[in-house]
Target: Methyltransferase type 11 domain-containing protein
Amino acid sequence: MPNFVSDIYATPHVRKLLADENRVLAPLLNRCTGSHGLHLTAAHAGEPPAIPLLGHWATVRVAGAHLGGDVLASGLEPLPFTDEAFGVVLLRHALETTARQDNLLDEAIRVLEPGGMIAITGFHPVGLWSPWVARQSRGARPRLTWPWWWSQRLVRDDFELSMPRRLGSAWPRAGGAAAGESLIGGGYLLVARKKRPSAVPLRPRVALSPAPVPGTFASGARRHARETLR
Model:
């Protein structure tokens, strides 16, 4: 009989994968700055990587049509944050568990400031992790998607995209040495930067200035010259 678990993201195997993700993410995001970062995650205990130049993290747990963690809201509505509020947005397996994948990515893009970084992680649909996730999950299974799909979305939304990469161990395991990038890793990572709007130069306006009237004219001639200029 399959050994189902109520929360696959709480298993030692996935916690190990999350740690491997942090190992790869931290150096990529070390130069990110800003007062706040947004951590959208499927894991209760998943911690974002430490970024020295970033002020604070807001952590939101995504589970179907519900949002929890630092905010309590509906996953079917826009995120309760203002536009361009965050310098970094991490979607840690969040697109696998949300009820509306495209909407959540749209919202992540909306709250990311120009020049900010977005990172997406998830289970790769090809490999030994995919059947393990299917066997272990109880109820709604994570919806695994190809990373190229999210790559195309980000490019279409005017992001500068780094090459997608696979990471973590090739098969689910709870222990062992820390893993980084791997051609057959069970997870994937996308990192992209939101382009700043191009500066549009203003067209100079031509201002007409009246020609000076020589002071040697007689008073009537000066008055006639002014009337002619008008």
Observations:
- The domain at 8-194 is CATH 3.40.50.150 (Rossmann fold).
